[in-house]
Amino acid sequence: FEGMTQYSRDTWVGTISLQKFTKLHQTGVSTYNFETQRDPIFKKYKGTTIKRVNINPKSVAEITNEIVRGTYLYDDVTLNILADGTEDFEFKVTNERFADGKKILTGDIIFKDGCLNLTDGAHRLKGAESALLMVPDLNGNFILVITNFDVNKANDYIRQKDKRNPIDKEYLESKDVTNLNNDIVKNINESSLSDLRGLIVTDEFLLNEGEGVTTFNIMVKTIEQLWSVKTRKDVRVISNYLIDFFNELIGLYPDELKYNI
Question: In 3D, which of 173, 152, 186 has the Cα closest to residue 39?
Fold first, then answer.
């Protein structure tokens, strides 16, 4: 990624052509990560529930037409180099200058290994792909934002990007890392010691299909009513209590659950 200007310790801004942007995804260099993407949708196919990227066809068609007509106002798309300890990339500075007393660094980001995820721009991607099928030699550049965020910070970022295609409110709330009640529900839903593991869902479709027993939002709101969670210690104590509580409840009434645990 050439000509990137460092905006902060973990954020860079530059531009990327339509062709390069689409090629990154088509060749598998950049991928979708549902942990750091907008709310997915779920479809039933041959008895199996499949998670898919939530795409609004109308928005894609509008973007495609505007790009082809030359009326599209190119805005920003975001790629995130997931900060999980496995990422391997380098920011090679090619120019230094000062503006308003601040040093501004410009250079090339050399991505070597790790998870490069499309955090924001799925509709732009699909629109650009369709436009290039119609007119392969189109000229156009998106503003490119490259971040190096962990999952939590990436989720904060997508919550702020809820503009063109609003994200489901319940899904957004489940991604709010500042709400300690979310951490409790997440612990219950992910702990290997919990019989509710994987059964707390953010999508009503999954609940209606019997692939969950309650929603994330219901659990969070209930915990908010019963406890005043103020510290990480509270999160740990209440999480352990509720895991034990639900394990006992499920042990007493296993047949009352729709899902076969």
Answer: 173
